[in-house]
Each structure stands twice: as C-alpha cells, then as structure tokens.
Design brief:
The structure holds 2 protein chains of 2 kinds. By secondary structure, chain A is an alpha/beta fold. Chain A is built from 8 helices and 9 strands. Chain A has helices at 55-63, 97-107, 113-126, 143-155, 173-190, 201-207, 225-230, 235-244, and strands spanning 5-16, 29-40, 44-48, 70-75, 81-83, 161-165, 193-198, 210-215, 218-224. Chain A starts with a strand and ends with a helix. Chain B is mainly α. Helix content of chain B is 72%, strand content 0%. Classes of the chains: A alpha/beta, B mainly alpha. The A-B interface holds A 20, 22, 63-65, 79-82, 84, 86, 89-95, 100, 103-104, 106-108, 139-140, 150, 153-154, 157 and B 1-2, 101, 105, 163-175, 183, 186-187, 189, 271.
Chain lengths: 245, 271
C-alpha cells in the first residue's frame, strides 16, 4: 500500500499534567515519547495499548486539542474530526440532533437552510436513523443511536480523516458490530481514513489494516494487522494478544 | 426520558401568584381606580371598603391605587436591576469560565470583593455620588447584582468547556462567540432561571429597603419601600396602610420564591 500520506507524525512528545495555576507547579509527566508514524489515504490505522499509555493524549494532539507538544504533526487534509468514546457527553443536551448535525455545515459556510436540512436528513438515514430524529434531543436516544449521531456529525462536513477514540467500547457487543459495520461502509462511500484507537484487539483485528502498539507513551511495534496477529515481535504485543485470547 | 412533572405544587402556586401580581402591576402602569396622588378630604384614613379596597391614607389618597403604582415602580426597578446584573454577570461569567487564565482570576477576585463588602453601604456610596432617583437605584443595585450571576454562570461555563460536545464543536471550526452563546449558554438554563428569580426577589427587597431609608426613589414617586416608611407613622390610626403595602410585597416575593423553588425541582427531575 503505497498511497499518499494523509497524516505524518514526526518525533512527537507531549507532556501532561498541571501546567498552570499559581499554586502547585509540579513538573508535568511526559506521556508521549518520540512517536513517529504515517497514516495513508484510505487506511484504517489501529492504535492499541492499555489504558493510560497515552493513546488519548496522542489523539488529542493530532486533532489540535493539545496546545503544547514537541515534534511535528503534518496534516495533508482539512482538519480531522473526532468521535469520542462516551456517547453521552459528545452531544449537546440543550440542542436537537438536527441542530447539532447542521452545525458543521454552518461552520463550513453552508448558508442555505434547506440545503443543510436535506443534508442532515440524508446523513441520518445513512447512519441508520429516522429523519424524525432531527427533532429529538440526545437524552431521547440510546447509546448506540447517539454514537451513530456522533459519527454522522463527524463526517457530515466531508473530512478526509476521522480520529475515533474508543468509539465502541461504551456499547454492548451487538451494537458494537453494527457501529463497526457503519464505520467500514462510510469509509468506502466518503473516502475516509481512520485513526482507530482501542484497547480491544478483537475490534482492531476486524477493522484495521495496520496497527500501532503503544506502551508507556512509545510505539513499540508497527505492522499490518495480519502480520501483527500472526507474528507478534515485541513481548508486550504478545502479552496483549495472550490477554485477548 | 423527560417526564412532564406532575403535582409540583410550588411551581403552580408560585406561578399563579406571580401571574396575578404581574397582571395587576401591568394594569396599574396604565390604569388605577383613583389617581394615586389625588387627595380626598372627605375620605381621610378610611378603613377598607368596596369604594377603597385597601382604605385611604391620612391625606385621603386611595391606598390600592398607590400600592398598584408603587408596586409597578418596584417591579420595574427590580426588572432593570436583574437585567443589568444578569446581562453583565452572564457575559463576565461566560468569558471567565470559558477562557480562564489571569483575567478569570482577577475578575473572580473583584466579584468576591464586591460580595464581601456590605452591599447596602456600597449602594449608599453609589447613590450619594450619583444622586438619588430611580435610574440611579437601578444602576447601583444592578452593579451589586453582577457577582451573583457571574459566579453561577462562570461555574457552568468552566464545567462545559472541556465536555466532548464543546470539544467537537471547536473541531468543527465553530467560532468562540458562537460556542459561548449558542452551545454553552442554553445549557446554563437550569442554574440561570433560579438565579434570576432569586435575584428578582433580592432586588425587590433591596429597593424597598433603600427607599425605606430614603436613599431610593424620590418621595413623590410612590414605591413600596417609601410607602412602608410613610405608613409606619399611622400604624395606630390606619393599620391597613402598612398591611396593604407589606402584604403586597410579601405576595410578590412569595410568588417568585415558590416559582423559583418549583423551577429548581423541575430541572432536578428532568436531570
């Protein structure tokens, strides 16, 4: 797979922890150490590792939510969008689903209200929800439905790259499979690439083309999904695979 | 699922009292049974009767008409005070809570300082510098009411700032102003509504105390506080005067307090 790179991360290091305040200026913890990788157009790149290994910090740095880091993050596309783990905090409770979905379009400068509504209805249908959902509020939807809405909101403005931080781990197994199916279908239709963060190797095996294994803020192994699962090289990868059996 | 709250007695009773009082006050702004300042030598210190619902005062002025007008004055002042306090407080609280940093630290301390200072003394200072009169009372109290709104709004904005739905709004490229007022502000409704009603009550009371002490509205313009102060002299000969004025104030505040409590229960239930 020698396609054009969409995202390049070079020697990225991030600190995390108390960075401000007048009191208690402790030295921050280094949670990402010298991470480099490339994500190519059309790829689903998995990022696995135990909790606290820096996966989420890395994802935040990539989408630009982390103000301070060392190294380079080069995007070869418009700003990436993100799907969060918790479907309960990722939608504005005071707004209807339709309003939330139309917001990226408004931000992108789509002035025509009818055009926005048509696009919202189209996306809702595409992610498997009724068009009538546009008038509902987040609390009226189930976790799986909310995650579908979050995914719709992430892709509605046609980004090239979507960073998904544990998008299915808060859902039960049957819903997980449906959401993963949806992500695969959307990738094909909208020509998307994913950086898919998970601690669940089974999910990564089903979905990803290539996998990065992260431990203590460093990438310890990088390989295609078949190679990684067949011949894990790093002891930590073996350990993860054994735990997932 | 949100359920329609049933049997929220506070909400409905408070709402009913507030509604009736507001209607009476609105009517009183354009029409009163008698002219509030018309003296009638034939009917001085009359007890309540069908002709004079709350009786007359020592000059033969109809107390009901005067209460309507006075309550109207107090009501408008309270609305003005809450409008200033809420608008400025929300703006300051929103900016402090959302952006944080040094301006937040400074403004929060300023608000604390205003709160720590006896509010009455401060109002006295402002009024003695700028002069008496309804508009200056509104301004003085309005400034004093800013911190209470700023504090609750700041807390909500600081809480929402790092929630995922605000983060994704930023990722979508939504501007800060739009995030502040279209994304976060609607979520502060559950704290802002009770703050508004409590603020309104405090404004009515503060205005009444200031007018009672003679640093509020001018005596020619009846307000509940100045009338209460007047009625004190005639407590023996015309007790209905003080009762009518005091009762009106109690009803206004009771109605709003119940409404506020009911609103809080509603927002608790709907989560």
């Amino acid at each position: 797979m020698s396609r054009e790179p969409l995202l390049e991360v070079r020697h990225l290091s991030c600190d995390y922890g108390p960075s401000g305040g007048l009191l208690g200026r402790r030295s921050p913890r280094r949670v990402i150490r010298d991470v480099s990788f490339t994500l190519c157009q059309g790829e689903i790149l998995g990022l696995v590792g135990e909790s606290g290994c820096g996966k989420t910090t890395l994802s935040r740095a990539i989408v630009g939510m982390l103000p301070g880091y060392e190294g380079e993050i080069i995007h070869h596309s418009r700003r990436p969008q993100m799907v969060f783990q918790d479907p309960f905090s990722s939608l504005n409770p005071a707004r209807t689903i339709g309003w939330t979905l139309a917001e990226p379009l408004r931000a992108a400068g789509v002035r025509d209200r009818a055009a926005r509504e048509a696009r919202v209805a189209e996306l809702l249908e595409r992610v498997g929800l009724e068009a009538a959902c546009a008038g509902r509020r987040p609390w009226e939807l189930s976790g799986g439905q909310r995650q579908r809405v979050s995914i719709a909101a992430a892709v509605i403005a046609r980004p090239r790259l979507v960073v998904a931080d544990e998008p299915v781990s808060a859902l039960d197994v049957t819903i997980q499979a449906q959401i993963l199916r949806l992500l695969v279908d959307l990738r094909r239709e909208y020509d998307l690439s994913y950086l898919f963060i998970s601690h669940d190797l089974n999910v990564v095996y089903q979905l990803c083309n290539r996998v990065l294994v992260m431990r203590h803020g460093q990438i310890v192994e990088e390989n295609t999904v078949e190679e990684l699962f067949a011949h894990p090289r790093h002891p930590y990868t073996r350990q993860l695979l054994e735990a997932a059996e | 699922m949100r359920q329609q709250p049933k049997g929220n007695a506070f909400f409905y009773l408070g709402g009913a009292i507030t509604l009736v009082m507001t209607l009476l006050i609105l009517v009183g702004l354009v029409w009163t049974p008698y002219s509030p300042s018309a003296m009638d030598p034939a009917a001085m210190t009359c007890p309540p009767s069908p002709a004079h619902l709350l009786g007359t005062d020592n000059f033969g002025r109809d107390i009901f008409s005067r209460v309507l007008e006075g309550a109207g004055t107090s009501f408008l002042i309270a609305v003005g005070v809450v409008a200033i306090g809420c608008a400025a407080g929300t703006l300051i609280g929103a900016l402090c809570g959302y952006f944080g940093g040094l301006p937040d630290l400074v403004l929060t301390r300023v608000c604390d300082a205003i709160t720590a200072f006896p509010s009455f003394l401060l109002a006295l200072v402002i009024v003695s510098v700028m002069g008496k009169g309804a508009s200056n009372v509104v301004l003085a109290l309005g400034i004093l009411f800013i911190p209470s709104f700023a504090r609750v709004v700041r807390g909500e904005f600081a809480r929402c700032r790092d929630l995922n739905y605000i983060r994704s709004a930023r990722l979508m490229g939504v501007g800060n102003v739009r995030i502040l007022f279209c994304h976060i502000l609607p979520n502060t409704r559950s704290v802002l509504l009770p703050a508004l009603t409590i603020g309104f009550n405090n404004a009515i009371l503060s205005e009444a105390s200031m007018s009672y002490l003679g640093i509020g509205v001018q005596p020619t313009q009846p307000s509940l506080g100045s009338m209460l102060s007047d009625s004190q002299t005639y407590l023996g000969s015309a007790p209905w005067y003080a009762l009518g004025v005091g009762g009106t104030m109690v009803l206004m505040i009771l109605g709003f307090s119940l409404l506020s409590e009911g609103l809080q229960q509603r927002s608790r239930r709907s989560g």
